């Protein structure tokens, strides 16, 4: 599928099928054992991405591309950054706005839209946690190259790593599609991403927690 088709599929999934699930998963509410491993993995990955940025972010402008319910955006704003959180799902943005603490309301802007919108401007850093996992390598390359001219220092993002487990899940998803199934993750190797972008790619850390398996990468202009 093209970038635009995948984007529309992701928006439909999160707005019509998964909003309540993600609202609960990203809260403090009790969840099942499987979802607890996903929550723990996402918490760890958020820490990994934050560790690739300066501790003191005062004066920095940051794009949280695919911000979801806003947890990472809030942590960036609490470090002093001027944060723009964007997600293709208006429903998730509504949740993020409700959860935004008053003390960061002036430095954390949340909006529904496309992370590639040039009207968002330039940024010192960009983070994209699990928002590129549904795209092909070629699409990820185009996304990164589209963002590089507006990036000052670095972008940290995640992809689904090409492991036997994820490849098996990917094949099952391709063989047995369902209208209510989440968009299919596309597994990648870091080297394959490096081949399709003009930016400089560095593998950071892989997080494996039950059903959550994700690879953090860094790209610099």
Give an account of the 3D structure.
This protein is 39% helix and 24% strand. The chain contains eight helices and eight strands, in the order αααβαβαββαβαβαββ. With 221 residues, the chain is of the alpha/beta class. It has one domain (3-220): Vaccinia Virus protein VP39 (Rossmann fold). Strands 1, 2, 3, 4, 5, 6, 7 and 8 form an eight-stranded mixed β-sheet that branches. The radius of gyration is 16 Å and the shape is globular.
| Class by SSE composition | alpha/beta
Task: Give the integer mean of the pLDDT values.
Answer: 90
Low-confidence stretches: none
Largest sheet: 8 strands, mixed
CATH topology type: Rossmann fold
- The total domain count is 1
Range of strand content:
15-25%
User: How many helices does DSSP assign?
Assistant: 8
Q: What is the overall shape?
A: globular
CATH architectural category: 3-Layer(aba) Sandwich
CATH superfamily annotation: Vaccinia Virus protein VP39
As a whole number of angstroms, the C-alpha radius of gyration is 16 Å
Helix-strand pattern: HHHEHEHEEHEHEHEE
Task: Calculate the terminal CA-CA distance, rounded to whole Å.
Answer: 27 Å
The quaternary structure here is: single chain
Number of strands: 8
Can you tell me the CATH class? Answer: Alpha Beta
Helix content: 25-40%
Features:
221 residues, alpha/beta, Rossmann fold, 24% strand
Put the structure in a nutshell.
Helices cover 39% and strands 24% of the residues. With 221 residues, the protein is an alpha/beta fold.
How would you summarize the topology of this molecule?
Elements: H1 3-16, H2 19-25, H3 33-50, E1 61-65, H4 71-78, E2 82-87, H5 90-99, E3 108-112, E4 123-128, H6 137-147, E5 151-161, H7 164-175, E6 187-188, H8 190-195, E7 200-209, E8 212-220
């Amino acid at each position: 599928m093209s970038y635009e088709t995948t984007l529309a599929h992701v928006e439909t999934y999160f707005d019509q099928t998964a909003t309540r699930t993600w609202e609960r998963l990203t809260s403090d509410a009790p969840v099942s054992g499987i979802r607890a491993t996903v929550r723990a993995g996402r918490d760890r990955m958020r820490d990994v991405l934050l560790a690739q940025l300066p501790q003191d972010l005062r004066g920095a402008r940051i794009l949280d591309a695919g911000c979801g319910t806003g947890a990472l955006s809030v942590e960036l704003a609490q470090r002093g950054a001027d944060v723009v959180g964007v997600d293709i799902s208006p429903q998730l943005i509504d949740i993020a706005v409700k959860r935004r603490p008053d003390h960061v309301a002036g430095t954390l802007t949340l909006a529904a839209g496309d992370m590639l919108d040039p009207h968002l401007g330039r940024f010192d850093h960009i983070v994209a946690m699990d928002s590129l996992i549904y795209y092909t390598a070629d699409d990820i390359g185009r996304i990164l190259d589209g963002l590089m001219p507006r990036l000052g220092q670095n972008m940290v993002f995640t992809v689904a790593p090409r492991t036997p487990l994820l490849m098996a899940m990917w094949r099952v998803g391709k063989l047995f599609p369902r209208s209510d199934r989440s968009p299919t993750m596309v597994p990648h190797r870091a080297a394959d991403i490096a081949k399709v972008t003009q930016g400089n790619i560095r593998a950071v850390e892989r997080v494996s927690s039950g059903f959550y398996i994700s690879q953090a990468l860094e790209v610099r202009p």
